[in-house]
Structures are given as structure tokens and as C-alpha cells.
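User:
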Amino acid sequence: METSTESLFIEHSSCSSCNSSDANAIYSDHSFCFACEKHINLTDSGEPITPIQTAQNTTTSGVNFIKGDYQALRKRGISEQTCRALGYSVGEYQGKPCHIAPITDSKGRLVAQKLRLPGKDFRVLGDLKAGGLVFQNKCKSSGKRLVITEGEIDALSYATVAPDWPVVSLPNGCAGGVKAVKKSLEFCEGFDEVVLLLDSDEPGRAAALEIAALLSPGKCKIAELPLKDANEMLVAGRVSDLKHAVYNAKLFSPEGIVQGHELTVADLQAVTPKGCSIPFPQLQSMIRGLRKRELVMVCAGSGIGKSTFTRELGYHLAVEHGQKVGYVMLEESVAKTAQAMIAIDNNVPLGDLMEDPTILTQDQWDTSFEKVVKPSAFYDSFGSSEIDKLMSKVRYLAVGLGCDFVVLDHVSMVTAAGHADERKSLDELMVKARSLVENTGIGLIAVSHIKRGSGDKSYNEGAQISLTSLRGSAALEQLSDVCIALERDQQSETEGDVAQIRLLKNRPFGQVGPAGHLMYDVATGRQKHYDKQDAPPQSVDGFDPFDDVPF
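Assistant: Predicted structure:
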């Protein structure tokens, strides 16, 4: 027999007709025994049906449930009346006092009891999976508003301050929230709005977003509490604030959707922080420095000077702007990267320093180590690396170690192994790198190789580079904020150590094209701004100064 949807379930009881111990369901206006199907209306007996004073011993599928008494939970600020209304009782389990929360199925039959013992020791009698949301049996099947809390105590707390509104809780807390709501989705959808009143900690907020996404658009709202949970609000006497948290709950919208009324003029007037200046004047004027939350791609032919260029940028960010820089240099060891920073700091070629460390005094070594090595962070992994593993390391550099900028040299090494399709793997890498930059707020300076070229002049002979020259994936250009190319004719007798800087993409400011020149100084091992109006440097005895310089 179907029970009235307007009836309020109170609890299970024994049946006087068939002597069943638990099949008789007591409702606000009638009783119905699921064993013998005996139905009694209020008018049948001439007297109102009253709730039984204690929760009864019941047996479902061989499970012996616990008998409990309805009591006030004074430390929690919850009255006996509230506990009775929701069927929450106090009993004893294995010699220890416990709270008893009844779990019922869709027909209101008791299928499990959730026990709360001292020390937050939770036990379950019966089949928790067979039931729905806690206290769901106390609610009508539809209505204006349903409130969902993380635990039973929080549900009782809200019921204490707002007894006229239906409230339920998640049987397994926020960890099992999605599964629990999925199982009771039809019930939840029966209400005009569903308000999630979960804990204000990170797990609670994360669970609220996941649960909200399950419900129909425009139905779910998420309440924000100034204290941890509803019971803390009740115990602190902030009854009005608890009510208003539900009344003023914000309508959930999927991540990334922002309505205009959520913005303010002050938000739009906020000044974007200026970028950190770089030591290449024309490029600086075009991109206006390096900024956090942007992805800068540096590309060039093999041996042109990409690694040296990015090291110069990292050194300048650290020394001139006090930024913490992380280095993910996949073609060299951590020791070599650190040696390179010390070489830059002392204006000596890296190759010379590697071959003869004594060209610097011990004091110079110690001073530079403290200045440019200790404040930095390094990823010790030579060669290719799995994309997810690498991104997790970069995230740790950003979040765990507080790096402001990370240099990744180079993206092709990340995808060299583990993926047969270079384009697809680069697509995946760039999407995750773009997301990481946005989520962590770091600036990422990445290095990319370019194609070999098919014209009469190769990129190693100074051929002009374009965005289509980047090797492997269009995502390299599409997901970068700034793309910088270095062009140099390695075979030139007069300008073999001078590189043209070309700005291929400039999302923040738009200006692209030639962006000045840089020159490698053989004596100091440094890349410096070069003014073409000055006399071009000459190679010495046909010696190419870039031959032995690690780029």
C-alpha cells in the first residue's frame, strides 16, 4: 500500500495485528504495517497516534538494532524535542554510550543504524548502502527548500533553529557525499531549491561543488559559515547567523562562470602588477617585462642560445627583482645548472669554470652560492619525464617551495618518451602547463625546439622564424602568452655571435616583430644587449664562440 506523500514518518514500531517487531510504520496521520498491510487512520481509532517514547529493538535481515532513549544533547545545544522529531536517540553499544541515527530505505524501513561512540568512533549496524540520506524518512517528498548537512549533529542543529524546514545529512560525510546524493537524486530534485550546509573546511567546500554539479541548473545553493559547521554556530549562540547562512546561500554556478553582478567596479579598476624588467631594452619595451601567471615560450634552432637566454632571464629575475626561480633543465644536471648561475654571477664562461673551478676564489664561490644558488630551486631529472609527474614537480616548486617563476628547458624532452604521437603529447603538456600557470600564479618560461626548415636557408643560418616554425603542436603558440624567437647565422664570419630577437606573439600588448639584438660575449660568457649601430664583433681565427657553449 502506498502511504500519503503528505504524511510525516515518525518511526517503526511493533504491530499488534501480526506481532511483527518492526514492520509497523508510524506516520503523523496513520500507521501502516508492511508485514500484514494493516492500515489505521486517525479516525479509525478516534485518537491521534502518538510517537513511541523510545526507539525500539528491531531486526532486519538478521541484524539486532539497538534500543535508545530520546534525550537532550546539552553539550551540543540540541533539545530532546528535536532528537525525537528526527528519531535520533541515545543508547549503549558494547558497554559504551552511543548516539543512534536511523537509516531507512525509500519505503521508510529501518535498514541500518549509524552509531557515534566517544572519540568520534563511528560504527554501523545493518546495511548502510541500502538506505538513503540520514533523516530522509522525516521529510516530505517535495517542498520549497531542502537543507543538506555533512553530519547528523549538524542536521539536528539546523532543525533546532529552523524546525519547519526539512533537513538531511550525508551518511558518510563529505567523502561519500556525491554517491549519497546520487542515490537520493530523485528525492532531492523534488524540492525547489537544495541548500548545501556543509563544513567550511577545504573538504567540505570541495564536496559542495561536486554535489552541486549533480543537481539541475539553478536548483542548488551553497551556504557559507563563519565557523566550522552548523553545530559550532549553534553552540556559539549564533542562531541568527546560522539561519541567514541558509537564506543567503549563493546559487551554484559551474566553475569558470561569473555573472556580471558578481563583479565590482573596483575589481575592474584594480591595476595589473607591472612585469619584472629584463636586460634587453627593445624586447622589454614591447612585452613590458615578465609577469607571473603568464607562459613565455622561447624558441630557436639547435645551438642558437635558448638555454643561455633563459638562464640570463632567471638570473635577472632573482638578482634584480628578488624573485624565487625554479629550474627544470631536462638536458643537464642540477650541478651544471647551479654552476651556470655562479658563472653568470662572476662573468666567466661556464665551460671555463667547469674545466677549472679555481678560476674563482673560494670566497667568490661561497658568495655566489649564497646569492644565486641557495635562493633557487632545482628539479633533478635528466632526460624525458612523464607529463603528469613533471607537472606535479612544477606545482610543488610553485606551491610547496614558493617559486615565483619556473624555467622549463625544454618541452620536447618531456614528450620524448612514453608517447608515440609527439603532437598529442605536446597538446596535453601545454594544456596542463597553461592550467598550472593559472591555478598557481607562477610565471613559466619554457623552451621549445623548432622544425628543421625546408627552404634554401636553415634556421641555423639565420632564417626568419614564425609561429608555424614551432615543432610538434599548434598548442605551443596558442596557449603561450608571449613567444620569443632567437635567430642567428652560426656560419657568419662577422656576426656569428649576434642573434636577432623576434617577438612572435605578444598577447598582453599586441606588438610583434623584430625586438632588438643580443650578443654572446666570449670573455664573460654572458648574453648582452647589442646595438647594431656599433661595430659588429669579429670571430677570432675562424673560431665560432658558440661551439663549446652549452645552450
